[in-house]
Structure of Secreted protein:
Amino acid sequence: MRALRILLIVTVILGGLFVIADRVAVGFAEDEAADKLRTSEGLASTPSVSIKGFPFLTQVVGGELDEVEVGIQNLEADTGGTAQNTGPDKIRIDDLTAQMRGVAFSGNYSSATAASATGTATISYDELLKAAKSEPVQLTNGVTAEVVGLSDGGNGKIKVEVEATVLGAKLPQPVSVLSTIGVKGDTVTARADALPNLGVQLAEDKARTVTDFQQRIDGLPGGIKLDKVEAAPNGVDITVRGSDVSLVG
């Protein structure tokens, strides 16, 4: 009995040491991965990296991690301008969180590729507003208009506020329209459900040069792509997806 108790105690101690060693190793790996990801993607700040699954060391031996969660704050994504104007070169994306699954890495850890990835992020309305016309547009003789605000319109719609001047007189308040948002390739699109009532007859194509806009979002980390978008209280929530996503290297 004494020998059995000693064996149990030794087993518990060794098991505890293994857990400690495993957690120390995973913490070190997360820090290293975060630093490499920041460098490879040219990020302004160090992202958070969380390696899921236990034990970590047995995953390392197998050369593949079950799941890695990456979090990036204030990501500056490329835009390539917009279809309507030159627009900003960058757009800020808030709180990008991505789950990478089946992450295989090289023996010297110089590269890592996820079999699949899904994630979410938010683009604030102030950021998305930069994609709309930034200066008044002449819609017809004596009528100019510009988008001055974007906000949540409810039921997955964006409320677009249009300020107009008609025959030299500015309308007392902006006119609002609801717009449907969507994704077309690497571009977020917004199209008004109905044209704004400015008190004058407008050609639809002219009116839509103000109400409708699109914003390209390119160069997301690892080559992940836009999947879908939805209007939310604080901005547009986006979902991203990808396969064979390169994390490092």
Summary: The chain has one domain: 1-249. Confidence is low (pLDDT under 50) at residues 6-10, 82-86. Residues 1-249 form one domain.
